[in-house]
Structures are given as C-alpha cells and as structure tokens.
Amino acid sequence: MTEPTSTVPDRRAASVAELLVHCLENEGVTHVFGIPGEENIHLVEALSRSSIRYVLVRHEQGASFMAETYGRLTGKAGVCSATLGPGAINLLLGTADATTNSTPLIALSAQVGMGRSFKESHQGVDLVSMFEPVTKWSALVATPGAAPEMVRKAFKLAQTERPGAVYLAVPEDVEKAVPPEGAVPLPVNVPRPDEPSADQVARAATILGEARHPVVLAGHGAAGPALMRFAERLGVPVATTFHGKGVFPDDHPLALGAVGFMRHDYVNFGFDQADVVVTVGYELQEFDPVRINPGGDKRIIHIHRFPAEVDRHYDVAVGLQADVSQSLDALAHAVGAPPGEPSTGQHIRRLLAEELDRGAADDRFPLAPARIVADTRAAMGRDDIVLVDTGALKMWMARLYPTYEPNTCLISNGLSTMAWTLPGAIGAKLARPDARILVSTGDGSFLMNSQEIETALREGIAMVVLIWVDDAYGLISWKMDLELGHDVDTTFNNPDFVAYAESFGATGYRIETAAELMPTLRTALAADTVSVIACPVDYSANLELIRSLGELDESLS
Ligand SMILES: Cc1ncc(C[n+]2csc(CCOP(=O)(O)OP(=O)(O)O)c2C)c(N)n1
Ligand SMILES: [Mg+2]
C-alpha cells in the first residue's frame, strides 16, 4: 500500500541536467556531494540554481561516504555525484559500503555520450557493469525522456526494503539534451508499514512462550521504543550487534552489550545459555551466526522487514517479515507473560563496567585503549554522535563504549571499510546539526581521507577528529601476532598531526599524558571548528585482552 506525499513541480526544464535537478528536489534531496568533471558541468550548474546545496569535496570517495552517512541518519538516500571514468570509479567504495550496510544511497555520474559509447573512446569504461554487483540497480539514462521514471525508481529502490545503493550514469550528450514535453518529476509514494501475519505471530508466540532462556539479538534494523516495550514486557535480555549499538540503551537493566568480536566475549555468555534467540533487525553480513549458535541447536525467531539469508547456523523457526515495531508489539501481546526464568544482563554489564572503570583509572602513556574509550564516553553527551573507523580501535569502541540512543555510535560492519568516518562526519553533521560529532579513527584510516578536513572547514562544519596513534595498521599487527606469532609490514611513519591540522586552518592537539585527553576532548567538542587530536595508544592491551577473554574467533575485522 502506498500514499502520495509530495506535489510535483511543473516547471519545464531546459535540459536533462535541469530536469534531473527538479527530480532530485522532488525527492526531498537537500545536498549533493561531489566533484564536477567536464562531462557533468550542466548538472552542477543547474544544482547551483536550485534549492539543493552542492557540497564540493576533495575526493569522490569522500563524497560517497558523506552521502552514505547522511542516508544512514535520515533514512533518505544521500546523493553523491562524479564525472565519468575515474571520478565514478572513486564513488565505488562508499556505494558498496552503503549496500553492505543496508543504507540508502544514490550515486550519479556522467558517462561518455551515446554518440561514442559503442567504440573505444577516451575515459570510457563500462560503469554500469562495474556498479552492478554493489548496488540494487545500476543503469544508464540512455534517453532524455527516461529521467523522471529512472530517478523515481532509483529512490524507490534505494529507500525501500532492503535499503541500499543505486547507480545512474548520465551520458554527456543526454545531460545537455532538451527533454521531451511533459517530462516532469513523478509523484513520490511512501510505502505504508505492513502488519505481521497473525499465523506467524501465533507460531512465534508458542516458541517464545516455551523458551527457558530467551535472548534478543538486535541489529541496526531494530526499532528503539518497540524493542524496549518488548524486552520489558517479557523480561528478555537484549544484546546488540556492532552496527546496532544504541538501538537498546546500554544502561538498561536488560542490556547485555554488543556482540560481534569474540567467540567468548562477555556478551556471548548470554547466548551460551540461550535456547531461543529472537533476532530483531539483524543481518547476517554483520557477523557469522555461528558465533551465537555454534551448535546450530537454538530456535530462532527472525523479525525483520525481509526474509533472512540462508545459513546452516541460522535455521529460522519462524520469520516475521513485516514492520518491525508492529511485529514486536504483536508478539509481546501474544506471549503475554514473561517466558522462562527471570534473567537480566546484570552480570555481563558488571564485567563491562569493571573493564571500563579499570581503563578510566589507567594512567599509562601511551594511553590504554580502555582509557581512550572511557574518556570519550565521559566527554560526549548522550545524543552526540561518534563515528568509529575500522581497525583495532573499532574492537575497543564496539565492545566497551556504552551507547544510549540509536545512531549515536556509528560503525561500518557490513564492508568494514577503512577511512569512512572523517568524510562521514560531514554527512552526519548535515543530517543532525544539533549533535556534536566526534570521529574516532586510527592513524592509518585518518591519512586515507584527511583531505576532507578542507571540505569541513569550507562548509563551516564543526567536528573533532580523535586519532589513535600507534604508527601502524594495528588491527593487522594484532591478527598477525595471534596467528603467526609476529607481525611484518604493518608499521609506518606519521606526519606531525598538529602541524598538518594547522596547515588546513584546523586546530591541532597532541596528547602527552593520559590526564590531558579528557580536558582536550571537552575543549575541542566545545569549539566551532575542526579539531584534530593525536592520541598515542598502547596496543599491548590487545593481546592482554585476548588472553583474558579466551579463544579468538576466525576473523577480527
Ligand atoms: C579500505 C581498506 N583497506 C584495508 C582494510 C584492512 N584493514 C582493516 S583494519 C586495518 C588497519 C587499520 O589501521 P589504523 O587505521 O591505523 O587503525 P588501528 O588498527 O591501528 O587501530 C586494515 C589495513 C580495510 N578494512 N579497508
Ligand atoms: Mg593505527
């Protein structure tokens, strides 16, 4: 079922470029992130005359991450734009990241004109084929009249279940062409949420009602308030995935924390005992279900808007494929009384809190990872947003950073790409201007996309970039030390981060004792600029953690 929500502008466009911009306005687009090229100058010029802000960036990869993060926080597709060939290829990484994180994104690029598309031609590569495997739809706007239908379809596909990326290529001669009469944006329809089937709810209620030790595993597709009602009504403890951090507040008596790192991190204790696992908005690409169901013997109730992937360790007893909030409310109502033995996450929460407290009191320099996590938490408000990049630091933040609100601790756990957070912070601030934004990144990831500091400063976007400095690709050293007994080819030299930040006109800070971190974070978070904090970290704690927790699972990242 759908209902129309927008009015359609009836301005006659002078070119397909202008028509495309009308179509984007019609979809509610507020920003387009990109770099122009010779083949899309008409689009960029038309954007400058529209209600949409064109955010000029310093690398198309940055544009793709900005669009992705904007889409993740708003639920509406973020838009990135590039020229043909090399520019478009640079959009690929964030496009793939969006699809693997089930995030809506539209990637637009130019393409060689139709007049030379059939032969070897300067900068011509088959972009549609290149984007095909990492999008829900990848297509060429081959004729001027196709623009309204293709843009509408792109947004519809990107934003409806399961959300993901869409790619459209616009040939340079099509972009310049005059659209046919009557080519105007199409009405936007928003899907209404579906109710779960009564039969599915009844079968799930029987299984849950018979459970002795039920546990909820909540991914990023979980619905906050309904999840809280469900857990409280039935007294079922809730763990989240890394990507789902915050969908259930970590200070709730039923919270178990985030699962996804170790076979036997504290949170796994909750799953070891469970006989029924209710997964809510969980996607298997985040981590292998063998980690929570090694024997394949637990009964699984899958609640999401789309069916589950098939996996030997994810044998779904009942799937509720409907609006997640409605499914949770219906199931809680049908079960009625709390099933099984009363349970809380108290024990696991205490272990996590003790580790964080030990970290907060650890004065070593370079800093203990848990100290950096503890100080970050203390400096940030409940609604402020931290974007956590991929690396050893992600393991520490995902495990230990208490998160209280959805989308306040952002992690890419689909593709687990490096270097998405600094550009992503620009998308985050535009989506949530009221929130303070912190980028938590390794020194390796930082230098991969640090050029976007210039974009942030030019656009007046305040953010704090906290660099965990270990002069290495630390996660890979960690993995090598564990599996090979030593590490090779993972260390590098760093620039002077303070001088580097200041050369952009940003503010730079160098942490030289553990006690400096917290006041520096507070000062930087209060400042209306880009602040870069270089914080040395002592990753010897990585191996200590493994020793104290037990067996390492197959993959760390
Ligand atoms: C684009 C990309 N390249 C390589 C990897 C593999 N990888 C994952 S983490 C990592 C090291 C990250 O180093 P750094 O940013 O310094 O963080 P640290 O692990 O030191 O905390 C690498 C190379 C990846 N996930 N993404
Ligand atoms: Mg590093």
Bound molecules: thiamine diphosphate, magnesium ion
Supply Rg. Answer: 24 Å
The total of helices stands at 22
Assembly state (oligomeric): single chain
The number of domains = 3
- The tally of beta strands, per DSSP, is 20
Tell me, briefly, the overall form: globular
**Helix fraction by DSSP (H/I, runs of at least 4):** 25-40%
Structural class: alpha/beta
Beta-strand content estimate: 15-25%
Largest sheet entry: 6 strands, parallel
The side-by-side strand order for the widest beta sheet comes to 3-2-4-5-7-6
What's the level 1 CATH class of the largest domain?
Alpha Beta
Q: Low-confidence segments, ≥5 residues, pLDDT <50?
A: 1-8, 551-557
CATH homology superfamily name of the largest domain:
Thiamin diphosphate (ThDP)-binding fold, Pyr/PP domains
As for the CATH topology of the largest domain, it is Rossmann fold
CATH architecture name of the largest domain: 3-Layer(aba) Sandwich
**What would the average pLDDT be, to the nearest integer?**
92
How far do the termini sit from each other?
A: 40 Å
